[in-house]
Please model this.
Amino acid sequence: MVYDFLRKDFEDGIVDKLEESLSLPASRAIIFDENKISKETLKSLFPLLIDHPYLKNALIDTNQNYQLGKTLLHEIGAYYVMDSSAMLVAYFLEAKDDDFILDMCAAPGGKTIALSLLNPNAYIVSNDISKSRLLETIKNIERMGLSNICLTLNDLTNFELDTLTFDKIILDAPCSGSGMFRKEKKMEEDFNLEKIKALLPIQEKLLEKAYSLLKPGGELIYSTCSFTYEENEGQIISFLNKHEDMKPVEIDNSPYFYHHKDLPFGLHVFYHRFPGEGHFIVKLRKNGSCETNKKVNIIEHVSSERIFLTNEKFLSLGKDFYILRPGILKANKVSKTWKLEHHYAKTKNDLVKIEIDEKNAKNYIYGLNIKIDEDMDGYVVLTYKNIPIGLSKISSHNAKNLYPKGLRKKIN
Ligand SMILES: C[S@@+](CC[C@H](N)C(=O)[O-])C[C@H]1O[C@@H](n2cnc3c(N)ncnc32)[C@H](O)[C@@H]1O
Model:
């Protein structure tokens, strides 16, 4: 049905090609942490993966040859599985060190994670309206061992705040999801025009909020995983008509992408041109100039019997935003004693490390205690291929399992 609906806005040839490629299997991709694993290692383990055309730390599994989300390396955060087109949003944002960035609709965290891997020295505020989805985001951020992210829980359509502003914003808006039909057949069954009509005012309000939260000279990427003109070109053209100080910016003119004549700088990722699922991406710049931000100092912040490693900038958000997690969770008070947390073990380099083999790593993630050769007692971080897995307390060659209970699983 969506394809008939698209014919009123796109040339027939394009829509026919989209419809044809719908029967091909959906692709999948990984973005990896270059400090933990190299492209060569990943390619030797998964030889059918191909290079991402844009990101040097990403590989694409065009035919879903591998179960990339079920490996030990995935579990310990060597890479994150996401769509190859979704990661383009973080790439095209072109953030730099010390940028203060807002990801307005961030859960479960794909674009935030890509952004953090590409820009470990930027400050990222990842917001969502859904607490359960943000709790998933926290798990993903901890698994990947990321440290420059503050998570906030707010409905940004209904939010009075215009004092604090960001250098860059990603608005990955809630949408009809028509670009994801190859991946999720259910979305195709659920697609209807009423759904689009209900989403348009939400997208519009979120765009208005993005405008008021963006610094002069700042840049906003609006993206959806939908093909429809109404949610993409239509929404942005009407936004630009209201805000003369916002201008579209050209991000790419390669044949990988389709540009609609009404908004030539917007780009559609169509699966017959690019090895990824459907997406729409447009970048807009606000007139004016941004001053370069100063580096901020990491501070310890104690709140509700928990210690966080954070910074003044993240904490200052607390005036207006509801902060769920202001940075790295370092420790938790249990029966009057501070206990180190998993997030700290995954991100910080100052604890003693003990390398274990694949079998032991799998056993540890399953929740078992393991035997080690080292003659020592006390807290350590267990690693596999030098990648932190989690905390353990060693006593008499026995490594006690401290892997969080909610994360334990069997890996074959
Ligand atoms: C397309 S998904 C985001 C996917 C995410 N950017 C990623 O890369 O993993 C849209 C998100 O918008 C959130 N959302 C919907 N309405 C919102 C609102 N009013 N304020 C903030 N977030 C909202 C939803 O909970 C959902 O997680």
